[in-house]
C-alpha cells in the first residue's frame, strides 16, 4: 500500500537531481549571450549629403563600447571624429570649397536577428559551423541618436555661430563581424577577436549640419575596424 508513496518520492528526487544537473551543465557552458561586452575601433571614408554639392570623400575614425542585454540585443555608446569635404554650395554661381571637421557622440541599440532566434543548443554548437555561417550569424542592424559638433575651415562660407555648430542626429547602421579567433565549445571564460565591417548613416535632426538651412543634411561612413568580444 505504501508503494505509490515511495514511487512518488523517488520520482520527485530524480526530477530535482535532473534539474540540478541540467543547471550545472548550463553553468559550465556559455551563458546567454556568449559575451557581455564588446569593444571596437576603426575608421574609413565619409561623405556628406545635403545642400553642399560636388561632394568629395572625407574620412573618420570611431571607438565603440557595447553591452549585451540578451543574446542578439546590445546597447552601446560611440564616439566619432573626422572630416567631411565639399566642392561648392550648389547655387551654380560661386564655388564654395568647404571642409567640415566633426565630432559625434552616439547612443544606439543593435539587433542581431540570427543570434536572437538561436536556441541554447544552436549556440553551443556554433563552433562546428563553417566560417561563412559564423560570420553571417553576426549580421546586425542598429539605430539610435546623438549629438554632433562641427566647424568649417572655409573663409568663404558663413555658417551658424561663427563657423561652428552643435546639432542632434539620428543614427542607423548595418554590419557584420568576421571571426579572427578560433571558436570553442565552452566560451564563458574567454574572449574573441573579429574584423568589423560597418555601413552607417547619420541624419541631422534639423537642416544645419553644413551651415546652410535649405535641405536636411546627413553624412555616411563606411568603416573597417577591430572588435574584441569578452
From TrEMBL:
Q: What is this protein called?
A: Outer membrane protein beta-barrel domain-containing protein
Extract the signal peptide range: 1-24
Respond yes or no to whether keyword Signal is given for this record.
yes
**Which keywords, in A-to-Z order, does the entry hold?**
Signal
Q: Which organism is it from?
A: Parapedobacter luteus
Amino acid at each position: 500500500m505504501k508503494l505509490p508513496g515511495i514511487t512518488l518520492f523517488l520520482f520527485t528526487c530524480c526530477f530535482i537531481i535532473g534539474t540540478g544537473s541540467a543547471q550545472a551543465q548550463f553553468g559550465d557552458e556559455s551563458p546567454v549571450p556568449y559575451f557581455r561586452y564588446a569593444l571596437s575601433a576603426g575608421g574609413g571614408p565619409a561623405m556628406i549629403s545635403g545642400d553642399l554639392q560636388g561632394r568629395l570623400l572625407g574620412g573618420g575614425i570611431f571607438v565603440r563600447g557595447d553591452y549585451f542585454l540578451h543574446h542578439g540585443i546590445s546597447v552601446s555608446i560611440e564616439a566619432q571624429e573626422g572630416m567631411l569635404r565639399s566642392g561648392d554650395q550648389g547655387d551654380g554661381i560661386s564655388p564654395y570649397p568647404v571642409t567640415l571637421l566633426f565630432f559625434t557622440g552616439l547612443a544606439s541599440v543593435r539587433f542581431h536577428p540570427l543570434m536572437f532566434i538561436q536556441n541554447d543548443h544552436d549556440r553551443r554548437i556554433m563552433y562546428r559551423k563553417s566560417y561563412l555561417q559564423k560570420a553571417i550569424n553576426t549580421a546586425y542592424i542598429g539605430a539610435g541618436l546623438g549629438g554632433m559638433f562641427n566647424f568649417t575651415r572655409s573663409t568663404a562660407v558663413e555658417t551658424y555661430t561663427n563657423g561652428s555648430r552643435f546639432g542632434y542626429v539620428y543614427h542607423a547602421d548595418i554590419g557584420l563581424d568576421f571571426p579572427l579567433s578560433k571558436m570553442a565549445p565552452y566560451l564563458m571564460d574567454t574572449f574573441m577577436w573579429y574584423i568589423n565591417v560597418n555601413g552607417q548613416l547619420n541624419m541631422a535632426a534639423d537642416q544645419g549640419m553644413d551651415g546652410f538651412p535649405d535641405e536636411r543634411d546627413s553624412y555616411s561612413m563606411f568603416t573597417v575596424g577591430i572588435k574584441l568580444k569578452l
